[in-house]
């Protein structure tokens, strides 16, 4: 059985950026798993992933693999598929891990980490929040639009494996940090995504739309409800600090189309249920977050002609 140091499941925008930092951090053989044969073939033809960062392009020589044909076990597995695809990767994660492996889930919103914690035992599992803007231009070409911080932590207790992963990614230029309170950061990141993602998706705009007058008004309305939801889970968030984080996030990634805006532009399903829909479940369906969730679902319905199976 072949052993790899690090594997990525889902080599889209964020998975590609993780492969880039890992490669620069000294990991040379990186299997990256994809859902479609088209992605595997396009990346093989290109000789790897091309990452544009600033005005430079880097070729990252990954090993593209279809998710139904695993090629070996991995010490670190970084899962960067969309939240609604996580359930399809559970089997793969079982196959490519051993009891010594660490799985890091990097999806936005709530639900993905919980699902993996529920389904996978005898493995180290961690969650992380990503403050990076990345855009997938085509199957093999990804643009890094700014930000370089990832905060990760395990809800099953401290593991030094996360520090090992931190060393690799830090060497590669990523500001990867480890926390003992990952849920606090997941709530803060939920605030960032609950504002930036639907506002950019509805308007099909770059992240800087949030910095406009109505962007700021809506941000406050969304965040007021998020604070109530967080309190129900025992987290007291400060509104002004949260808004500062959100607006700074929009500035740092101002030229990025959020992952949800990219979904809408590409006629794909969105993660709205894991983000604003999750907040609405706590504060009522008639809330601002409830309305935003329904508007984004309406937009999805306008282009989803049964050509993609979300279930
Ligand atoms: N884009 C961004 O700027 C940011 C995104 N995030 C979060 O990161 C996560 C990933 O988003 P993003 O990178 O934008 O997503 P993308 O849509 O760009 O990429 C998703 C990737 O997952 C692959 N995939 C889907 N199903 C499977 C499967 N069953 N097995 C293996 N691979 C699979 C797809 O394969 P294929 O190519 O074959 O379709 C694709 O390569 C999301 O939760 C998002 O919210 C967080 C911060 C910033
Ligand atoms: C950080 C941000 C807002 C970057 O665009 C993101 O998480 C996303 O696009 O999903």
From TrEMBL:
Its EC number is 1.1.1.169. Pfam families: ApbA, ApbA_C. One of its GO terms (cellular component) is cytoplasm. The keyword Transit peptide does not apply. Belongs to the ketopantoate reductase family. NCBIfam families: apbA_panE (TIGR00745). Catalyzes the NADPH-dependent reduction of ketopantoate into pantoic acid. This is 2-dehydropantoate 2-reductase.
């Amino acid at each position: 059985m072949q052993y790899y140091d690090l594997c990525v499941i889902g080599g889209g925008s964020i998975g590609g950026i993780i492969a880039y930092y890992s490669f620069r951090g000294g990991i040379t053989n990186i299997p990256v798993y994809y859902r479609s044969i088209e992605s595997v073939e396009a990346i093989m033809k290109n000789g790897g992933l091309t990452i544009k960062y600033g005005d430079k392009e880097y070729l990252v020589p990954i090993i593209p693999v279809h998710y139904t044909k695993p090629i070996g076990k991995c010490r670190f597995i970084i899962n960067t598929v969309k939240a609604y695809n996580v359930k399809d990767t559970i089997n793969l994660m079982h196959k490519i891990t051993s009891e010594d492996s660490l799985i890091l889930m990097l999806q936005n919103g709530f639900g993905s980490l919980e699902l993996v914690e529920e389904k996978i035992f005898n493995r180290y599992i961690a969650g992380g929040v990503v403050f990076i803007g990345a855009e997938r231009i085509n199957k093999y070409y990804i643009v890094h639009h700014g930000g370089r911080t990832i905060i990760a932590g395990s809800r099953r207790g401290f593991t030094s494996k996360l520090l090992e992963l931190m060393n690799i990614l830090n060497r590669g230029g990523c500001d990867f940090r480890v926390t003992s309170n990952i849920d606090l950061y997941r709530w803060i990141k939920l605030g960032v995504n609950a504002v930036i993602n639907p506002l950019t998706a509805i308007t099909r705009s770059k992240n800087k739309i949030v910095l406009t007058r109505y962007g700021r008004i809506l941000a406050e309305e969304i965040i007021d409800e998020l604070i109530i939801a967080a309190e129900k889970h025992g987290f007291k968030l400060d509104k002004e600090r949260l808004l500062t984080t959100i607006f700074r996030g929009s500035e740092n990634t101002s030229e990025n189309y959020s992952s949800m805006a990219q979904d809408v532009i590409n006629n794909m399903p969105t993660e709205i249920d894991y983000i604003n829909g999750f907040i609405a479940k706590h504060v009522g369906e008639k809330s601002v977050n409830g309305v935003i969730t329904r508007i984004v679902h309406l937009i999805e319905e306008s282009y989803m002609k049964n050509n993609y199976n979300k279930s």
